[in-house]
């Protein structure tokens, strides 16, 4: 399921596959909807039939198309596997500021990502950590900014940000930051190395019917 | 409403499309303006414009003979190449663009012929029926140190992938004159094509070219005649075989009566199966009959 | 973050094999509430692909977790059937390393190998060890049920029609081989192959092309009189030479001496009809392994609201007095649904009153070079003909470009109808294709070494005519079959789907992201002033059954 090959938008922007991971209820879909359509619904969840959403973003005069994949609820019973993760360029680890356990589970999500996305050992991958629901009241907050930074330091993750999909605070910034981070990461150089060439996309006719048997063009 | 999958209707998609088209139109107009401003031909086949460019280029070349200015000149020539590239992307079969490209390269003392050659290989892999590209390759070939053997291999590879292709057979015929050593190989490859698909005309023309070379001796021709008779047994209704057979007989045994009869049979058969050219065969037949 | 599964569904699918996954996708696609559940912690069941580590640890015993008292979860007049049986699982015959564990012990073995082949100019292998291979474990995607896809077959057409093609990526099989006169030969399958082959004479070229054309275009008249004759006799009557008969009969028609004429013609059509669409041969292979296929269907199901749960403690199926399906017991939770679709391995032992009549002998090898070396890496299908009373055998060689094994290694899959045991049944092919220590290497051709081998057999349950007579609203899916492609699996999935939902379309095209209107997206830009009207229109057009979103919170 290499999105890069088959689902490239028509324009020539650099296409980046983004997966947003984290426990159910931390606001993954809300973040995505806020970013893509600037819309918020508290009970926003996976929309039927939506595999991923595309959104163009401009950074330093370069255009990028972010292809943001929806977990489609599959994170709840941990049934996401290689086809979902493979070919990811950016991984956004999310938790809710008012939910400590979702913060603790980021370890698990990070490991799950590294395992299934088949990231080469010892290569740096551009994770970004997002603490969502920064709009909650101070007394409801269970994870402090300091805890977030500490965890990122311990895990060698360079970018983190607190957002609120509800109030639209920092959402654009978070995705922008993710791309900037990707730009800096080494993985960019390796990008083409790990993909396979000459693969077949069923939707494109590839070979020439002239070479087929019994259909030889004659007298042209 | 919530979570419902909504799919754009055809009307909506058309609206979107129209919008897109409008956007494209604006972009196109802007592009046109830029093109016209820089005197780039919109239609790459207006040769007056290309000739004008060539005159400008000659001026540039003659005025930039000082060593300090070579960089300026090479930039200028590089731009001309880019222009032909754009034109060829738009119309890969533009005579004027191909010609201009070659002309510019020829006038550039530092032309990168190897790069041109590699480009040819790439384009021919994508479309092996573009005879402009084959022609261009033939011109470039003389400028790069490619061995004849390598080039013949390239030609064989292309033909192996698709032998229904006049251009690649023709290109092959331009590579070298037939020699005693290679005539057998060429006959083998062309026979393979004839037998694989006798209804495909391209290889018959290549055969015609081989046979026109005096290096093909009587023995070769007799062999071929035998092969054609074998093939005719399997495919009695194939006009190409009959035509080639008549041609060979005429060449080998014009004066032998039993062969004349065979020829007559062939033409009668041709009259029957190839109605479009019936008159032509009748004419041949009459000539044969009156001569004998 | 333990979530409880919702407790009401329209359909519960147990097991994530190909047929089950297609049914789940098709049901979700028309808006049914689907729970897709597996007791394994991986997708695919007998159709899965594994990395090297996992396949070595593959445990076949279906653990029956059956200890708790669940009576209080049952209603009056309900009975609980336990999940799973031992009749339809795969049976591992052997799993062998032909490599030293680590490098220290290496020296001995290596000298042996070098001695045996010292006359030949071998490009000296990197010294593989078990440790080294296992370190690359995740570069392997080893299929339990490798499949190829005909470029114009049912599977490819289904993927395109349903738009599942967007999830998947394939690689063309680059050559088809056969075993002829004691050696491997490339089968000329396309017009350009026939032209360029130097193994057939010019006359043979014409004969072959003519025959292939008449198989494709020929009407009934062409085969009149051959209704009760073999395909071989037809080929002989067409005066084909021995080699040509071999190519057509054993490779292109994938047949045997006994195959009837019309079946041979049908097979030939299937092969030739798929030429010229993608690549040089009629076949495609799924990148990263055939196991990806089940996951593509499961992903489609999830995207359309299907709920997925792996590694589930399935404790039983609940039925009422009339033997009608009521629900499943998952851990301590009762989950109700109207219909049940399950893999054959999950069928309650007490219901299994039939057994497989036929088994498939299979083997997987990791080797250090291709069976037929060439200047570039090939993806090879070898159709090994029946010789000396041995059955025909299908062999698939995958290189690193398929994403199923590391660089410089190959995975070879072999399968045939079981006669005695996998090792016995496949021995003649193994002996001919691979290097054996006992023989001194006189041969000019350097044969690949087997580094690791895995022999197993699976029941061929395809033709059992699975109908659950005693239980109602229950559908069973057969396991892997002998077909090269998924045609029989698709047919069965479609049949199950249509018997549950007779009035619905099977896997209609899924819309692309740009065709979907996201709620809240500003449509005014697109639709100018007649926004409302168009929106209403689009509602009508939407499949009625996609109305409800299942919030699983």
Question: How are the SSEs placed, and which strands pair?
Answer:
The complex is a heterotrimer of chains A (220), B (292) and C (553).
Chain A: H1 3-6, E1 14-21, H2 28-37, E2 52-59, E3 62-69, H3 82-85, E4 90-96, H4 100-104, H5 106-116, E5 127-132, H6 145-154, E6 159-162, H7 171-184, H8 187-190
Parallel strand pairs in A: 1-3, 1-4, 4-5, 5-6
Antiparallel strand pairs in A: 2-3
Chain B: H1 10-37, H2 47-63, H3 70-90, H4 95-106, H5 113-126, H6 131-141, H7 148-161, H8 166-175, H9 180-196, H10 201-211, H11 218-234, H12 239-253, H13 257-273, H14 278-291
Helix pairs in contact in B: 2-4, 3-4, 5-6, 6-8, 7-8, 8-10, 9-10, 11-12, 12-13, 13-14
Chain C: E1 8-14, H1 18-29, E2 34-37, E3 49-50, H2 52-56, E4 78-81, E5 91-97, H3 106-116, H4 130-135, E6 142-143, E7 149-150, H5 154-162, E8 170-172, E9 175-180, E10 183-186, H6 191-196, H7 202-217, H8 231-237, H9 242-252, H10 261-273, E11 283-286, H11 291-303, E12 307-309, E13 314-320, E14 325-330, E15 333-343, E16 359-367, E17 380-384, E18 393-398, E19 410-417, H12 422-433, E20 450-459, E21 474-477, H13 487-500, H14 524-527, H15 531-541
Parallel strand pairs in C: 1-2, 1-15, 2-12, 9-17, 15-21
Antiparallel strand pairs in C: 3-6, 4-13, 5-20, 7-11, 8-11, 9-10, 13-14, 14-15, 16-19, 16-20, 17-18, 18-19
Helix pairs in contact in C: 1-11, 1-13, 8-9, 8-10
Question: Any overview of this molecule?
Answer:
The complex is a heterotrimer of chains A (220), B (292) and C (553). By secondary structure, chain A is of the alpha/beta class. Chain A has a single domain (11-211), classed as 3-Layer(aba) Sandwich (Rossmann fold). Chain A has helices at 3-6, 28-37, 82-85, 100-104, 106-116, 145-154, 171-184, 187-190, and strands spanning 14-21, 52-59, 62-69, 90-96, 127-132, 159-162. Chain B has helices at 10-37, 47-63, 70-90, 95-106, 113-126, 131-141, 148-161, 166-175, 180-196, 201-211, 218-234, 239-253, 257-273, 278-291. Chain B is built from 14 helices and no strands. In chain B, helix 9 packs antiparallel against helix 10 (201-211) and helix 11 packs antiparallel against helix 12. Chain B has 292 residues and is mainly α. Chain C has helices spanning 18-29, 52-56, 106-116, 130-135, 154-162, 191-196, 202-217, 231-237, 242-252, 261-273, 291-303, 422-433, 487-500, 524-527, 531-541, and strands spanning 8-14, 34-37, 49-50, 78-81, 91-97, 142-143, 149-150, 170-172, 175-180, 183-186, 283-286, 307-309, 314-320, 325-330, 333-343, 359-367, 380-384, 393-398, 410-417, 450-459, 474-477. Chain C is of the alpha+beta class and 553 residues long. Among the domains of chain C are: 8-89 and 290-356 and 464-500, FAD/NAD(P)-binding domain, CATH 3.50.50.60; 91-143 and 359-437 and 444-459, Guanine Nucleotide Dissociation Inhibitor, domain 2 (2-Layer Sandwich), CATH 3.30.519.10; 515-546. In chain C, strands 1, 2, 4, 12, 13, 14, 15 and 21 form an 8-stranded mixed β-sheet that branches. Chain C has an 8-stranded mixed β-sheet with strand order 5-20-16-19-18-17-9-10, sandwiched between helices. A 3-stranded antiparallel β-sheet of chain C has the order 7-11-8. The N and C termini of chain C lie close together (12 Å). In chain C, helix 1 packs across helix 13. In chain C, 47% of the residues are buried. Chains in contact: A-B, A-C, B-C. Chains A and C meet through helix 2, strand 2 and helix 3 of A and helix 5, strand 8, helix 6, helix 7 and helix 11 of C. Chain A: This is small monomeric GTPase. Chain A: Its EC number is 3.6.5.2. Chain A: Its main location: membrane.
């Amino acid at each position: 399921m290499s999105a890069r090959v088959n689902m490239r938008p028509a324009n020539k922007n650099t296409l980046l596959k983004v997966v947003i991971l984290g426990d159910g209820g931390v606001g993954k879909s809300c973040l995505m909807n806020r970013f893509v359509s600037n819309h918020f619904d508290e009970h926003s969840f996976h929309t039927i039939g939506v595999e991923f959403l595309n959104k163009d973003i401009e950074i330093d005069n370069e255009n990028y198309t972010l292809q943001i994949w929806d977990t489609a609820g599959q994170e709840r019973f941990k049934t996401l596997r290689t086809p979902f993760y493979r070919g990811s360029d950016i991984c956004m680890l999310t938790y809710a500021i008012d939910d400590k356990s979702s913060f603790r589970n980021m370890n698990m999500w990070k490991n799950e990502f590294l395992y299934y996305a088949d990231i080469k050992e010892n290569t740096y991958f551009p994770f970004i950590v997002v603490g969502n629901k920064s709009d909650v009241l101070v007394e409801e907050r269970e994870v402090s900014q300091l805890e977030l930074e500490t965890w990122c330091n311990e895990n060698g993750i360079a970018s983190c940000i607190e957002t609120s999909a509800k109030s639209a605070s920092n959402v654009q910034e978070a995705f922008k930051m993710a791309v900037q981070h990707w730009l800096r990461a080494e993985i960019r150089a390796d990008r083409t190395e790990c993909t396979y060439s000459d693969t077949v996309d069923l939707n494109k006719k590839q070979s020439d019917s002239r070479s087929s048997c019994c259909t030889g063009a004659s007298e042209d | 409403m919530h979570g419902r999958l909504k799919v754009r209707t055809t009307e909506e998609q058309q609206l979107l499309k129209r919008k897109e088209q409008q956007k494209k139109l604006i972009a196109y107009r802007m592009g046109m303006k830029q093109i016209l401003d820089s005197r780039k031909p919109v239609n790459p086949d207006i040769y007056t414009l290309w000739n004008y460019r060539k005159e400008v280029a000659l001026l540039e070349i003659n005025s930039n003979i000082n060593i300090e200015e070579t960089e300026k000149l090479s930039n200028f020539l590089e731009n001309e190449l880019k222009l032909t590239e754009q034109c060829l992307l738009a119309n890969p079969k533009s005579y004027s663009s191909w010609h201009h490209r070659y002309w510019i390269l020829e006038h550039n003392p530092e032309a990168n012929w190897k790069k041109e050659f590699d480009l040819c290989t790439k384009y021919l892999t994508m479309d092996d029926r573009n005879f402009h590209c084959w022609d261009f390759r033939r011109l470039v070939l003389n400028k790069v140190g490619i061995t004849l053997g390598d080039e013949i291999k390239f030609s064989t590879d292309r033909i192996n992938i698709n032998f229904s292709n006049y251009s690649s057979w023709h290109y092959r015929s331009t590579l070298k004159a037939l020699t005693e050593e290679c005539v057998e190989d060429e006959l083998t490859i062309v026979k393979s094509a004839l037998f694989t698909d006798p209804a495909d005309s391209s290889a018959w023309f290549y055969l015609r070219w081989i046979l026109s070379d005096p290096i093909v001796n009587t023995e070769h021709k007799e062999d071929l005649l035998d092969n054609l008779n074998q093939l005719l047994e399997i495919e009695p209704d194939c006009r190409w075989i009959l035509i080639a057979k008549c041609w060979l007989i005429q060449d080998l045994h014009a004066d032998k009566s039993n062969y004349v009869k065979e020829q007559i049979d062939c033409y009668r058969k041709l009259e029957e199966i190839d109605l479009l050219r019936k008159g032509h065969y009748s004419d041949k037949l009459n000539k044969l009959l009156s001569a004998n | 973050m333990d979530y409880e599964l919702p407790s009401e569904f329209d359909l519960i699918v147990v097991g994530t094999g190909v047929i089950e996954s297609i049914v789940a996708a098709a049901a979700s696609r028309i808006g049914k509430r689907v729970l897709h559940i597996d007791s394994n912690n991986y997708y695919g069941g007998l159709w899965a692909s594994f990395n090297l580590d996992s396949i070595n640890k593959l445990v076949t015993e279906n653990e029956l977790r059956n200890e708790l008292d669940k009576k209080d979860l049952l209603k009056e007049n309900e009975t609980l059937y336990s999940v799973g049986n031992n009749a339809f699982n795969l049976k591992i015959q052997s799993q062998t390393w032909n490599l030293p564990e680590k490098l220290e012990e290496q020296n001995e073995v290596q000298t042996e190998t070098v001695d045996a082949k010292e006359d030949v100019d071998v490009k000296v292998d990197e010294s593989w060890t078990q440790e080294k291979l296992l370190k690359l474990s995740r570069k392997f995607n080893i299929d339990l049920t490798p499949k190829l896809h005909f470029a114009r077959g049912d599977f490819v057409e289904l993927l395109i029609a349903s738009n599942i093609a967007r999830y998947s990526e394939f690689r063309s099989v680059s050559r088809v081989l056969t075993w002829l006169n004691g050696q491997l030969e490339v089968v000329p399958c396309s017009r350009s192959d026939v032209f360029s082959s130097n193994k057939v004479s010019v006359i043979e070229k014409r004969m072959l092309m003519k025959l292939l054309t008449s198989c494709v275009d020929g009407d009934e008249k062409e085969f009149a009189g051959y209704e009760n004759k073999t395909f071989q006799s037809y080929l002989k009557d067409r005066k084909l030479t021995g080699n040509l008969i071999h190519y057509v009969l054993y490779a292109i028609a994938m047949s045997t001496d006994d195959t009837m004429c019309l079946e041979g013609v049908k097979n030939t059509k299937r092969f030739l009809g798929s030429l010229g669409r993608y690549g040089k041969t009629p076949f495609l292979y799924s990148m990263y392994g055939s196991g990806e296929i089940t996951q593509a269907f499961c992903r489609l199901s999830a995207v359309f609201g299907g709920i997925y749960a792996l590694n589930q403690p399935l404790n039983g199926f609940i039925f009422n007095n009339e033997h009608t399906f009521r629900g499943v017991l998952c851990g301590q939770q009762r989950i109700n649904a109207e219909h049940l679709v399950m893999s054959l391995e999950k069928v309650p032992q007490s219901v299994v009153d039939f057994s497989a009549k036929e088994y498939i002998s299979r083997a997987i090898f990791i080797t250090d070079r291709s069976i037929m070396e060439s200047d570039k890496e090939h993806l090879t299908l070898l159709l090994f003909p029946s010789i000396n009373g041995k059955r025909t055998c299908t062999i698939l060689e995958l290189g690193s470009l398929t994403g199923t094994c590391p660089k410089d290694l190959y995975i070879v899959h072999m399968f045939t109808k079981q006669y005695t045991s996998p090792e016995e049944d496949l021995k003649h092919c193994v002996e001919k294709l691979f290097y054996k220590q006992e023989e001194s290497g006189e041969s000019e051709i350097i044969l690949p070494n087997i580094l690791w081998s895995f022999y197993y057999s699976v029941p061929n349950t395809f033709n059992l005519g699975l109908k659950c007579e005693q239980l109602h609203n229950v559908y069973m899916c057969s396991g892997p079959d002998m077909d090269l492609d998924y045609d029989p699996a698709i047919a069965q999935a479609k049949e199950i789907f249509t018997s549950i939902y007779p009035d619905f379309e099977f896997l209609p095209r899924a819309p692309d992201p740009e065709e979907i209107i996201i709620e809240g997206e500003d449509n005014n830009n697109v639709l100018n002033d007649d926004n409302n009207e168009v929106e209403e229109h689009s509602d009508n057009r939407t499949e009625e059954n996609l109305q409800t979103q299942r919030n699983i919170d």
